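Why do we care about 3D structure at all? Because function follows from shape, and shape follows, mostly, from sequence. That is the central idea of this module. The next example makes it concrete: a single protein chain, its amino acid sequence, and then its structure expressed as C-alpha cells.
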Amino acid sequence: MSLKAEMDNEGKRLLGIRNKMNRKRPEFHRQEWFRYKRLGTSWRRPRGKHSKLREKKGYRHAWVESGYRGPVKVRNLHPSGFKEIYVSTLADLEKINPKTDAARISSTVGMKKRRVIQEKAKSSGIKLLNEVK
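And the structure:
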C-alpha cells in the first residue's frame, strides 16, 4: 500500500509550500474571544464602529486575509497529498482511486460495518485516514 499520493513534481513542491505555510499561519480568533466564553473562538469579521481590530491597530491579533491561503492546486488535500473521500458503504469504497484518493470512514458507521470496510480497503490497497485498530 502506498503511503504517499501520486502527484507531479509541481504538486509535491506546492504541497511542501502549503505545509510550511500551515506551520507559520496564526490562529484566527474572534474579537474578544478570551473575554466571553459564550462567543467561542471561531472567526467572525469585526463590524463595530469603534473596533480596534477592524481598524487593524498594530497591537491586535491577526486578521483573516487572502495572503494566508495555500496554493490553489493543493488546497483541500490531506497533508499526505491524498484527496479525502468520505465512505459510509462498501459501494463508496469502489469509487476510490487508490493512487490519488484516501478514504475516511464516516463517524456514523458502526464498528461491525467499519471492520468490513477496513478489510476491503486493505485488500484493494486504499489508504484509510482514520483506521481503528
